Amino acid sequence: MARTRKKPAPRRSSGESSKGAAKARTPRASVDVVEEESGFGLEEGIVFFTTVLIIVAFLFLDKGLGAYGEGMFFKG
């Protein structure tokens, strides 16, 4: 595997101070902090609606089986 070459460090003259080198640096990009919205989002709504729909469907099927005496909750 080939090794990568390190770039030589830039040479400083004897009169150049560290403050002058700091001024030459580019400023860093600013980062915006965004807070998440609190509350009920779309994903949570879909999960809640699906859960309620499955429970209601199970109860309707059990009610139908209850007419034949075979329901878990509804017995005819």
Structure overview:
The chain is mostly helical and 76 residues long. It has a domain at 45-70. The protein is 42% helix and 0% strand. The chain contains two helices and no strands. It has helices at residues 18-24, 42-66. The mean pLDDT is 82.
Q: Order of helices and strands, N to C?
A: HH
Q: What percentage of residues falls in helices of 4 or more residues?
A: 40-55%
* Separation of the first and last Cα atoms: 78 Å
DSSP summary, beta strand count: 0
- How many helices in DSSP terms? 2
Average per-residue pLDDT, rounded, comes to 82
Q: How would you sum up the global shape?
A: elongated
Biggest sheet features:
none
> What is the subunit arrangement here?
single chain
Beta-strand content: under 5%
- Computed over alpha carbons, the radius of gyration is 35 Å
Any descriptors?
single chain; about 80 residues; mainly alpha; 2 helices; about 0% strand
Q: Could you outline the blueprint of secondary structure elements for this entry?
A:
Blueprint: H1 18-24, H2 42-66
